[in-house]
Structure prediction request, 282 residues.
Amino acid sequence: MRVQSHYTSRVHASSGRRGMDLPGRRRKIFPGTGPSGGMRRDVVVLVGAGLSTASGIPDYRSAEGLWTLFDPEEFHIERFLADPDGFWRRRVDLIQRSGILDAEPNEGHRILACAARDGPVAAIVTQNVDGLHHKAETPIGRIIEVHGDSARSRCIACGRMEDTRAVVARYGGGAPRCLRPRCGGLLRPNVVLFGEPVTRLGEAWDALRGATTLVTVGTSLQVWPVAGLVQEALSAGIDVVIVNDAPTPFDGRATRVLRTDVVEGLGRLFPDAARGAAVHAS
Prediction:
């Protein structure tokens, strides 16, 4: 699949309404069973920051987002390489202010976990780095973290992974180092920094090739190349369902648009999984 860097789209005329189910090109989605009567896993879910904010994690780009407190250039790969001490000083501050390591999955994460375990979801492609899909007990093979995960830090010399919570706990003002004997290499966050290519994007393309429906959840669909998944799905005739509380550039071309809270929207799209999540949580 080819990532397209430019596109044109028509925003649905009713896209300003909240709590509405905008029809788009409505037709039946989630058919449920395959030719043999078994469960069809042909839904891919693309997740953005809107699902994390429901767990109390601030987003980055809104008027009250983290980029109003931090300069994104502080988290560029070149900044890390040029000044690892300064990079980690800001990184630890970001981690502590965001509460990302202490956040817990919300009902939306649990619904998706159930839909991935027992329902039609073949893959969850997440732009978030909070690891909450893992905490919600989503099958690990169905999670594609295209921006990495904050829960781990990686040695740039030997590749050893370490729990970020432990790294922050021992932070003393300088860039943390690998604890492996005879290594001592610099540690870096196990996330995609500015200036680096998006990881695991090829896996997301592969998952999309086998899908009949792409559901986007809590994302503005304005950050590329991940937004290219939606463009390619539309070009391939795959149904696109958008769940977001604000308009996106693709609303007018989607099969269905749920302009609502993301957790509520997921409950409406996956009612069986929502019931399973409620039972699992009780």
The mean pLDDT is 85.
